[in-house]
């Protein structure tokens, strides 16, 4: 089954952009996923083909008109989840990405200027999503972030089938740190335990480091996931009981 992405944007020329290279690009070529862009301006109705107007209540900038947005959305809508990129949305999570990647695809609405007329969200049951607490100039990069996160999880996209299984955020923690050769680099060595060949010890060390780094860098994750994140990952547990 192909994961189908439709991106509604005023700048379709930005796509596939970075989604056309590496893993996502190869998967796109191979038909693991498809990407369609819809030019929002094609749904403007006045002679100037305007898509925006001044904000009600005054203030700077321009707001995307709901009638034009609705026509663009309706042209693509076919039951796939509808999402709009906006800093006012709920933050995108790996859990949501996994859900989306397991589905038929997504229709993504990209804002520009001051954003969307608020009425569009309820009128078309659109889920507002944010990619982080900062403001971009448009939703396109956000749509690319969301699609990149989904596409790498599609079956067959990542080389080692397992490399998508236990990653940052899946256990409510950041992932443990990685090391590779050379063994000694600029006087710094790889942690001894990783060379021990003792898989239970390695798993325990990795879990400790994941906890430690998460506490240090992302205490919000520990708070959000509470006790669940204190339990060792299932892999570590399995190996512990075998040893
Ligand atoms: N005035 C708005 C920001 C508009 S930025 C506000 O303060 O909320 C213009 C467009 O960029 C938005 O409509 C949205 O599509 C996109 N955008 C900006 N920041 C974003 C973010 N953090 N996540 C997702 N989309 C974002």
TrEMBL record:
User: Which EC class is the enzyme in?
Assistant: transferase
The entry's function note states: Specifically methylates guanosine-37 in various tRNAs.
| The protein's name | tRNA (guanine-N(1)-)-methyltransferase
Supply the alphabetized keyword list. Answer: Cytoplasm, Methyltransferase, S-adenosyl-L-methionine, Transferase, tRNA processing
> A Pfam family this protein belongs to?
tRNA_m1G_MT
Q: In which organism is this protein found? A: Sphingomonas sabuli
Q: Which GO terms describe its cellular component?
A: cytosol
- Which processes are annotated in GO (biological process)? tRNA N1-guanine methylation
């Amino acid at each position: 089954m192909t994961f189908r992405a439709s991106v509604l944007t005023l700048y379709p020329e930005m796509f596939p952009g970075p989604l056309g290279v590496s893993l996502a690009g190869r998967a796109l070529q191979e038909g693991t996923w498809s990407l369609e862009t819809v030019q929002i301006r094609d749904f403007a109705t006045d002679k100037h083909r305007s898509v925006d107007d001044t904000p009600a209540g005054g203030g700077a900038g321009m707001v995307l008109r709901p009638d034009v947005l609705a026509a663009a959305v309706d042209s693509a809508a076919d039951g796939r989840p509808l999402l709009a990129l906006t800093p006012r949305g709920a933050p995108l999570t790996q859990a949501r990405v996994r859900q989306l990647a397991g589905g038929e695809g997504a229709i993504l609405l990209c804002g520009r200027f001051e954003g969307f007329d608020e009425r569009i969200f309820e009128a078309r049951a659109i889920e507002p999503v944010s990619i982080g607490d900062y403001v971009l100039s448009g939703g396109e990069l956000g749509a690319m972030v969301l699609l990149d996160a989904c596409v790498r999880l599609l079956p067959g996209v990542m080389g080692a089938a397992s490399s998508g299984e236990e990653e940052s955020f899946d256990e409510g923690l950041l992932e443990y740190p990685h090391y590779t050769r050379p063994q000694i680099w600029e006087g710094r060595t790889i942690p001894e335990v990783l060379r021990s060949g003792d898989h239970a010890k390695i798993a325990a060390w990795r879990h400790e480091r994941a906890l430690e780094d998460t506490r240090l860098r992302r205490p919000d994750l520990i708070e959000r996931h509470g006790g669940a994140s204190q339990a060792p990952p299932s892999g570590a547990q399995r190996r512990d009981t075998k040893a």
